[in-house]
Amino acid sequence: MARNSQVKLALLMTLFMVLSIALAPASIWNDGSDEQSDQQGSPDIDDDGDGVVDSEDAFPLNSTEQYDTDGDGVGDNTDTDDDGDGWSDVDEIACGTQANISSSSPSDIDMDGECDALDPDDDGDGWFDVDEIACGTQANISSSSPSDIDMDGECDALDPDDDGDGWFDVDEIACGSDPLNSSDIPLDSDADDICDLVDNDDDGDGVNDDDDAFPLDSNRSAVAPVPETSNASLYATIDTGIMLGTEEEGSIAYKGVPYVAPPIGELRWRPPVAAAAWTGVFNADSYPPFCPQPDNNLGEVGGVEDCLYLNVWTPADRGVNESLPVMVFLHGGGNFLGSSTSPLNGTLENTNSTPTYEGQRLSAHGRVVVVTLNYRLGVLGFLTHPGLIDEEGYSGNYGLMDQIEALKWVQRNIAAVGGDSERVMLFGQSGGGRDVCLLVTSPKAAGLFSRAAMHSIPCGNQPYSQAVTTRNALLAEMSCQTDGATSTELTAAEQVACMRGKDAIGLVSAVSAQPLGLASGAFRPTIDGNIITGIARSLFASGDYNHMPMIIGTNGLEYAHRWTDITAAQYPGYINATFGSDAAAVLAQYPINRSDFAGDGSKAYSTVMSDKNAVCPTRSLAASIAASQADDLFYYRFHQVLSTTDRKGDGAYHTTELLYLFQHMSGDAFSATDDERFTEAAMLEYWTSFAATGVPSGDGLATWLNHDATDEYYLSINSTLELLQRAKESDCEFWNGL
């Protein structure tokens, strides 16, 4: 009887170990010899150098011949019933029997005479045995709770810290501690009674545990060691596991945290799917890769499709029970460039080397929790297609769906790092500001944030006709529109399948070659009836949006950085080439001898283009919001010119305000002037108080009054702060009437 119990226990433990390996992330499959993945289809398909491709090797172990479970000299891949008991060895191994011992039933944990592989609810309690076994229940005993390790009557899946010791049970189970008792050693892979977190080579294989997984050698961190100077505040428990942050300039940073599953393979051009949980501790110490995109010159294309990660910063000195305002930032770049760390890609190799959106100083100085994120861009984020509509009922706006899922992540998890889910401010600049505007009007984003700030935005969507034209051009470029042999048009489903089979970099590169080009935003948000239900200005004017206090504004001369060498003599030619029959009217409104140009052709043309494309559309949007008289609206114009610019007379250009808001004047990269430090401090006070209360204010600062349809107040932000009225009224009335 005792021997039978031992056999049952051995079978159960063997099955549990195999399931742990089978359910582990692909990144841990490594033979430990050459640090290349053992997964089939990897560049290193004979990873252990035995002359056999890895798909024929079983388990990630080195072997001098094909895997031969029962030692009969015949590899399992050709000897499927290796021990001659009538069952294929793969079933036996996966189910936990000893493959070199003949058995009448290869895997029958509950002794009912049925193979577990064919009897998923082997004990008839309504739960799959794989769930029960993985969680540690006895599979031959019917249970009302399929996995209740600490016998408290709660299913472990709903009670992640089932034994109340402060650790996720999945970590305890996977690492072998006794889950029936509260343990001070929650992660002990080799059962040596030394916690993995302080036992850097816990499995004795000569490799630190932060490189080990389960505990086989692996390049992927599964368990992180505790640094000698660490404290408990560096750890945070979220819904997918435990993560370990790093301390940076008075804040704790968690970088590269997955918020949804990678949008690759069949998940390309689909709504986001929940991120997988991990075991052990996730080392959140590196910025994520950027999503596929070209460089600033629209030439070289780089990035990876597995890019949906976010970064979080929280004050290092926050109290245990302190609940802080949250600021979630959406990066700019026209929805085809940029990342969670940088506004535009620049040189692809150094995208993350000089990040603009580092949140540590904003978090520490402003006592807020800061979140930045990647979202799908360009063709991968905003393609519309009838075949995609057939799959989901809508298509396009996948980048906006990513942003919504990130906001849901914040709602679920931000309390774990000291954030208040009821005080979430969504702010963005340029393309990211447009996305904030669109999400304010989206029913899918209702309740996910309670304040909004939109910087430098033209809040619009791409006309559907343009989206169709660009899509068809891309289909033809990728040979996914017609059958190459018969020239007949592929069905919508076939076109989508063809496009999903294309390389992501190839798709983005092909977009660069299209006549519409990236400069015109070849793929942008469109009205889909799901995320975007109508034109933003109309929705605001009618009051049909998610009501909340808002900040909206633009910089003094948004596009000053684009045109820097236009002479006074060349200026009329630029206007004629740009505006055609309207050129004379534009030159009359913006003559080269106007006092604010002083004969500078570059400043004159930059002003025209800034007013037309950013300043005046933003002013019109503010008027639409104010027309409903439903919410507080705070309008600004930012005029602080960087002391480092060569053209100080041009004004504050696109993205400049973010250097002040993200507190770069306090960093090592700038030798800031007193005026710049004042502006930085003022922006910090206004924006963080708005995140906290919905009203931008600060001790000793100018009172920022609400922008309404009558007074049209706006705050001029510079080294002096002035409350003014009716921003650029004459110029914007001209554009409204043109």
In the CATH scheme, what's the topology name of the domain at 232-520? Rossmann fold
Average pLDDT level: 77
| Number of extended strands | 18
Determine the number of helices (DSSP H or I, runs of at least 4 residues): 19
Overall description:
This protein is α/β, with parallel strands linked by helices. Among the domains are: 232-520, Rossmann fold; 549-737, Rossmann fold, CATH 3.40.50. Helices cover 28% and strands 12% of the residues. The chain has 19 helices and 18 strands. α14 packs across α15.
Keyword list:
eleven-stranded mixed sheet; disordered N terminus; 738 residues; Rossmann fold; three-stranded mixed sheet; 19 helices; globular; alpha/beta
Task: Put the structure in a nutshell.
With 738 residues, the chain is of the alpha/beta class.
Topology diagram in text:
Layout lengths: L1 H21 L66 H7 L33 H7 L33 H7 L36 E2 L2 E2 L17 E4 L2 E4 L1 E3 L2 E8 L22 E3 L9 E2 L6 E2 L6 E7 L8 E7 L29 H7 L2 E5 L4 H5 L3 H7 L5 H16 L5 E11 L1 H10 L10 E5 L8 H14 L14 H9 L3 H9 L23 H7 L7 E6 L15 H9 L3 H7 L11 H28 L4 E6 L17 H6 L12 H20 L19 E5 L3 E5 L3 H9 L1
Parallel strand pairs: 4-7, 11-12, 11-13, 13-14, 14-15, 15-16, 16-17
Antiparallel strand pairs: 1-2, 3-4, 5-6, 6-10, 8-9, 10-12, 17-18
Helix pairs in contact: 7-11, 13-16, 14-15, 16-19
